[in-house]
Amino acid sequence: MTDRLLGSGLIIVDKPAGMTSHDVISRLRRIFRTRRVGHAGTLDPMATGVLVVGIERGTRFLAHLVTETKTYRATIRLGASTTTDDAEGDITSRTDTTDVTDTLIDAAIAQLTGDIMQKPAAVSAIKIDGKRAHERVRDGETVDIPARPVTVHRFDVLDRRSVDGYIDLDVDVFCSSGTYIRSLARDLGNALGVGGHLTALRRTTVGPFDLTHARTLEELEDNPQLSLTLDQALAASFPILRVSGEEGHKLAMGQWLEPRGLKEIHAAVTPDGRAVALVKEKGKRLATVFVARPSTL
């Protein structure tokens, strides 16, 4: 029997610079000849790297995809602040960086590592009353987004160099979802008293997905294939719970099973390797959170 979910799953795109995440979605809709395309975790036009995209029923899975951590390679320029905290904005101030030593940089980075409160840039994609902050700024509104808790697990300097009186730092950042790297650049510059902004950004991991999974749009044009089927995506994103064929059939119908002592969401996988559903214990029931393979398909 033909698998009706054969074309459903995830595409891990290596987003090029100069395109919005929506631009990528529009291109993929044409490549895969479907309107059912969506993405998780917006990337700014300047940024490149891992963009997780759902195709067909994979779009519904995106709402359940927990990507708690992300990793970035970035370049931070110390000595200038901009209106957007990155190179696409106008420079608002320049400050001499002669007295900025490696010791001072390391100390400032240490203060921005761990559990911190971070104020997102006004031009971020955060929605305020249903409208993205950057759209409000573009429409002339003054936007002030409150600081929020984030975790920076790793903030390493890979290289430092002087460029036209500025200090450029190539950094590697491993952080919680919701962390803004441009805000780290801004806050690092402010802590050093010289201002700072982001000049380059590449996302290298999103949760369990990294650049080894990723394909360029040109590669997808030539060979439009999923990076992971829906079965593979569920199994890669959650711990696996092995269930029998009969149990899988019940889950496909939205029915519940007896509890197994699970502490978190699991992907229920049948003996034939199909991920039927995401399940979670609720009281005395092992219930479905998301049915990947409903019995109606």
Give keywords.
37% strand, 8 helices, four-stranded mixed β-sheet, Pseudouridine synthase, EC 5.4.99.25, elongated, ten-stranded mixed β-sheet, 18 strands, single chain, isomerase, PsdUridine_synth_N, alpha+beta
In short:
With 297 residues, the protein is α+β, with helices and mostly antiparallel strands. It has three domains: 9-68 and 207-229, Pseudouridine synthase; 70-203, Pseudouridine synthase (2-Layer Sandwich); 238-291, Archaeosine Trna-guanine Transglycosylase, Chain: A, domain 4 (Roll). The chain has helices at residues 21-32, 58-61, 102-111, 133-138, 181-192, 217-222, 230-237, 245-252, and strands at 9-15, 37-40, 48-55, 69-78, 80-82, 91-94, 114-118, 127-128, 131-132, 148-163, 166-176, 196-206, 209-210, 228-229, 240-242, 266-269, 275-282, 285-291.
Structure, explained:
The protein has 297 residues and is of the alpha+beta class. The chain folds into 3 domains: 9-68 and 207-229, 2-Layer Sandwich (Pseudouridine synthase); 70-203, Pseudouridine synthase (2-Layer Sandwich); 238-291, PUA domain (Archaeosine Trna-guanine Transglycosylase, Chain: A, domain 4, Roll). Helices cover 22% and strands 37% of the residues. It has helices at 21-32, 58-61, 102-111, 133-138, 181-192, 217-222, 230-237, 245-252, and strands spanning 9-15, 37-40, 48-55, 69-78, 80-82, 91-94, 114-118, 127-128, 131-132, 148-163, 166-176, 196-206, 209-210, 228-229, 240-242, 266-269, 275-282, 285-291. The strands form 4 sheets. Strands 1, 2, 3, 4, 7, 10, 11, 12, 13 and 14 form a 10-stranded mixed sheet that branches. A 4-stranded mixed sheet has the order 15-16-17-18. The chain is elongated, with a radius of gyration of 22 Å. The model has no long low-confidence stretch (mean pLDDT 91).
